[in-house]
Design goal:
The protein has one domain. The protein is 76% helix and 0% strand. With 237 residues, it is mostly helical.
């Protein structure tokens, strides 16, 4: 039993490192956005979904909700800060119409988080509290992993992976696989289900990347005004 817990802790630490890599993997994309002064055809969906997802998992991993899961809180706290920075860059370099949608989305997420915290701490106790928060975290985590579907749809339609960062896809796959293993050792369905789906989703993105990499025109027009902005493979990957 002690050996199993040690293995689980080691995997959890590895998961923290890999999750950090997943959170920072879109950095080249945002460097490109910063240089171009435009979000081009990149979508904020995955980053907005990840903000609420991280906030909820931070709450879930606290001892007042779920014991012996502090590693879940630590890495998601880091992820929350990183994703907030990315979304801020999106806001800065988007037009007002896109900014308005982002602000509305963020306000809705803040309201949802506040309601969940109030209900969990005032109306629920013990296993009921962890069950309630765990179910919601699972739903949100699935949403985070499915959010790139909008990007994958564009990849299939245009036969181009220019706006689907490779390193983010790879990080999603590896991250899902590691946390799936972590949750399976001391079976936690609220971690097993979403991370299992995340592993599959990341694998599908990698398959799409391999399929359409050869047909991608890396020099096609990218910004919202139709002006060509060259995006090197190193900036996308």
């Amino acid at each position: 039993m002690a050996h199993k817990e040690l293995v689980r802790t080691i995997i959890g630490v590895i998961g923290n490192v890999i999750s950090f890599g997943m959170f920072v993997s879109p950095t080249p994309t945002f460097v490109n956005i910063w240089k171009a002064k435009s979000v081009q055809h990149f979508k904020p969906d995955p980053y907005l979904a990840t903000i609420l997802n991280c906030a909820m998992w931070v709450f879930y991993g606290l001892p007042i909700v779920k014991k012996d899961s502090i590693l879940v809180s630590t890495i998601n706290g880091v992820g929350l800060v990183i994703e907030a920075i990315f979304v801020t860059l999106f806001i800065i370099h988007s037009n007002w119409q896109k900014r308005r949608k982002i602000f509305i989305f963020l306000a809705g997420e803040a309201a949802i988080l506040a309601i969940v915290i109030v209900v969990a701490l005032t109306a629920l106790h013990g296993s009921k509290r962890s069950l309630f928060v765990g179910v919601l975290c699972t739903i949100l985590n699935v949403g985070m992993y499915l959010s790139p579907l909008t990007v994958m749809g564009r990849v299939i339609k245009t036969k181009s992976v220019k706006y689907m960062p490779f390193w983010l896809s790879l990080a999603n796959f590896v991250n899902g696989a590691v946390w799936f293993s972590y949750a399976f050792l001391r079976f936690d369905p609220w971690l097993v289900i979403p991370n299992g789906l995340g592993t599959v989703g990341g694998l599908i993105q990698l398959i799409l990347y391999a399929t359409y990499y050869g047909s991608t025109n890396w020099d096609e027009d990218g910004d919202e005004n139709g002006k060509a902005k060259e995006v090197q493979l190193s900036s996308e990957a």
